[in-house]
């Protein structure tokens, strides 16, 4: 049995997590993903009360759930994600002490030493019951995370991911095997890796597993879950968009429009390109762009769209999102289709033996 | 049996091609790949005599080869790639008539109607014996290629690829399944797709097949083949480089340094970043950068390196290239390791049945 199935005994294979997307990852979404045999995540905010309320809500949904309780442990079978540059360790420690989530997922430190401090404090606060996952976007960051914090899991985010990520990075196709080769070359406990970025369905999960990952994380796909906490206008755009390699783009414009200050310099965000990006290219100043963005923000769901200005985070796989459906259904479909994709691959290689005699 | 094994009967599963890399893809490299059960490619130039010489050399190497001749056909069991914006159809037609290569691979038209004209003329010239492959980098281009030219194979190049490709595109993880879904939605003959970009070993090939591809193309990996026609300095850099998401970058600088004019506007090239890129960022003019590049060019193998100025094309998977070895050995290793990766994936999913009763 894999390490992940031991640590997270309610999960089913292939191992699947929903990303801790700020705002979008509601208690209902996290709980649904875990109930269906994945592991759902909340995005931890710096607001202690809001986080406590979210965790209580998840606990209440899951209290009656036989599947996630089957392990008889006292952990809350979901995870919490923190963007370290803007988060408070004291808030995380309180939340972990009170609710004992299965995982805390650390991302985007302003100083890499935060990884060390956070993982040490959170392990102590949970008596080692809460596992530490660290998300990285390069091989070098993976090495530093392992050296500093010995995480239980590395989440490897490739360039196809929607939302925040590295300005410059590889996709999962090369990032995953290169990190795995590094991990294999070390002397130390084995660390499972999860692939994130562009994984939209069972085929993507199967491809991650073929690369050597122990499982996968999906973000954009869960933005189109019934339980996602995003505007209907945003969800509608996800269903409409195709060809994400050209319809999305990486930029710091989303942060500038939202006047979010503090992301480490090497991060930007992938979103559907729209009028805001177009006007920026044509020379519009940030001040003017922000003013126009705020006008549209007030207009609600109609302000989304290619000719709109709303920040519409999405990964390059957005063209594979065709339907809004309950998160549990997404998890079940991914589980089934990943098996099918893997079986098909195995069969296609049974086609002939290579290098047999003529 | 798959369509590819019928059309290219000397090939073994998984289906693997070496990319038609201008200069690098020598007759010896192409012949070695085909002899080992892949399909090797030459890069077709606009120079008729040079191309004819290369094809004669391949024919002479393969004349005595039992494996590739086993099909008893009169085709030359390799392919020819053309960058259409700079190629001459008359040169391609002559080469096809005289040598009957198994494939002509069309890439980068300056006008998409070239795809229609070239495929029609080449099918006629070869009496339908030479298959037409078209390389694209977006879903939209895939649709247009199918509508205009009904190719026998679509090569889907993701953003991780080294050398020339789209300035903006997705990686294989989303490009491959989205194009496959489009192809499945059509009424018409099935068209196999091959994944290209970031595929360095059997794990990458297995991931492509899990996504639904019929096989894969490798470029950067074959730059480090014994037979590759590139400078030793370049090969040395490929072995040294790691973390390709940050050590390589997309730019039009390589074309500007080499004073290559004519690439369609939406193309650039991925290469290892070095002093030329750094100086450009710092404000150096193209004229000065070109002059410094030419000085270094004269110095030979020592001019390569992170502090050098040579154009060192490489994909993001460059950190997975650890050794220079004969192309046949690369093909055999990929065949074996792709099987292993696929078997491992199938076994990891056998770990538990999802959604069984508790």
Features:
globular, 11 strands, 8-stranded parallel sheet, 3-stranded antiparallel sheet, alpha/beta, 2 domains, TIM Barrel, homodimer, 358 residues
Quick synopsis:
The structure is a homodimer of 358-residue chains. With 358 residues, chain A is an alpha/beta fold. Helices cover 44% and strands 15% of the residues of chain A.
This entry's quaternary arrangement is: homodimer
Q: State the CATH class of the largest domain in chain A.
A: Alpha Beta
Q: Give the N-terminus to C-terminus distance of chain A in angstroms.
A: 40 Å
Rg of Cα set of chain A: 20 Å
Largest interface: A-B, 74 and 74 residues
Please, what is the average pLDDT of chain A? 94
Gross morphology of chain A: globular
Which CATH architecture of the largest domain in chain A? Alpha-Beta Barrel
| Biggest sheet record of chain A | 8 strands, parallel
The CATH topology of the largest domain in chain A turns out to be TIM Barrel
Please bin the fraction of helical residues of chain A: 40-55%
